Amino acid sequence: xxxxxxxxxxxxxxxxxxxxxxxxxxxxxxxxxxxxxxxxxxxxxxxxxxxxxxxxxxxxxxxxxxxxxxxxxxxxxxxxxxxxxxxxxxxxxxxxxxxxxxxxxxxxxxxxxxxxxxxxxxxxxxxxxxxxxxxxxxxxxxxxxxxxxxxxxxxxxxxxxxxxxxxxxxxxxxxxxxxxxxxxxxxxxxxxxxxxxxxxxxxxxxxxxxxxxxxxxxxxxxxxxxxxxxxxxxxxxxxxxxxxxxxxxxxxxxxxxxxxxxxxxxxxxxxxxx
Length: 274
Prior knowledge:
Helices cover 41% and strands 20% of the residues. It is an alpha/beta fold. Helix 8 (214-225) runs parallel beside helix 10.
């Protein structure tokens, strides 16, 4: 397992490089500083950043390597990073272009992506956003590993969306949404399972239930809770029409949150993170 720190020389990648340099020794992970040269004229700036953060990692006693390669983010990362690696990056383009580039990366990446626009020297309070489906199992796995490494705590958040359809299960959720973790419903059982899995790792867990539009409620919870890292499932975990008409929660949260956001894709049979 490696931590990949990525830059193409764009100034907005530097908070992620700073954060990765701080994070790698705390997680006990070797680091690769990957410099992506998109245009020949950019090579000196990219090379300088790779060397700068290599020196910083060496000063932290962290095993590292530096790579500078010509090409584009997505094909280079797909070739260099494996499914058990953690890729940390910040915006590599202006905001009106970056969302599409990140979406294309997530559509193909098997590895988790830790996206940040800020440098934050604290990692104690984690927020895990669960959609109430088994697709979030990989996210519980990864975020649980991170929280255990730093002896942190986890808040499990489920947002109950406004329900427009009428059927028995929907009516039960609507009537008892504040007590959802205690209900014998698929969503309630899922929250109970996620809580047990995290507590089995020795991680303190609390459960929060909110009601309203998903992205808005997640961002309000982040603002209210002063979290150090937020975990969300990748929208590309579900191979169905469902993700074509629902908001891309992971991307919207990653672009708007003022803290690092971990995006993890579900893979059937994925082994525990070690």
